[in-house]
Amino acid sequence: MFLSLPTLTVLVPLLSLAGIFYSASVEENFPQGCTSTASVCFYSLLLPITLPVYVFFHLWTWMGLKLFRHN
Fold this sequence. Notes:
mainly alpha
């Protein structure tokens, strides 16, 4: 299943926000208790950073292929 860029642009922030709200509701000490890599809270805080970086580098690679294909 392939999702288009406008769909991902809306879906990624909503999923990130849902993950943060879920962690905030489950963890009793939300921001301070997120330092252990064994907790789900730690990865929910990485989600808003990781996914936009992935989308950026994916688009960067795609633009590189488009620009330098004929050279």
